[in-house]
Each structure stands twice: as structure tokens, then as C-alpha cells.
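Materials and Methods. Structural model of Cobalt-precorrin 5A hydrolase. The 129-residue sequence of Cobalt-precorrin 5A hydrolase from Kaistia hirudinis was retrieved and submitted for structure prediction as follows.
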Amino acid sequence: MIVAGIGCRRGASVADVLSAIDAALSETALGAEALALIAAPAEKGGEEGIVAAAAQLGRPLVLVPPEKLKAAGARTLTRSERVVALFGVPSVAEASALAAAGDASVLLVGRHIAGGATCALATSAGQRA
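The predicted structure was written out as C-alpha cells:
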């Protein structure tokens, strides 16, 4: 299972979110059809850009609760002090992807930034791009 984890600034557009997903996917041999779901922190559930991107891709949107986001935070690769202050994790996109892909998941692609959005890709154990 491949999961796209999303983070964004308030009001990020669907175009920003889709661009961030495309940027992350460009590092793999995968297309958007390989994504099983889109994941974001529960606090971002009202962000229209994220909701619309998941709908446009035809993938379920999983909202990761804070405790699961924090549990996955130790496995992230990148760090933003601003994000640590706001969410308690080094990378919202990476932690969201890892949490939604499962406890044994690994990052395929670290955080990519496009406009006001970020995307990271994670896979459940045993699956590689």
C-alpha cells in the first residue's frame, strides 16, 4: 500500500496539493494510480485543497489523529521547527504518510514542497516502488 501524506499552509489550493503529490511521485516509477489513499493530520480535515485533491484522485482521505501522528514522528526524515511547534512532529507530510501506512511502514520519498503544500510517500512493510 502506497500512501501520500499531505501537509499544507492554511488555504492551500488543490493545485498546490496535486503539485506536491506529483513532485513526490516523480522520484519513483509510480503514477497517481499507485496511491491507495491520501493522509493528513486530523487538524487539516477542513482544508479544501486536501479534500478536493483526494476527491480528484479518487482516493480516500484518512485523517490521522494527533497521537498517531506523534507516534510516527520519530521515523520522519526531515525537520521543520515551525511544524514541530505547531504539530509536535518534525514533518506533517512524512508523519501522516507513515502513520496511515502502518506501524512497520517506511518512507519511499521524503517531504516535497509545492507552493503551500507538502507531500511524502510511505509504503507498508514489504512493498517497494
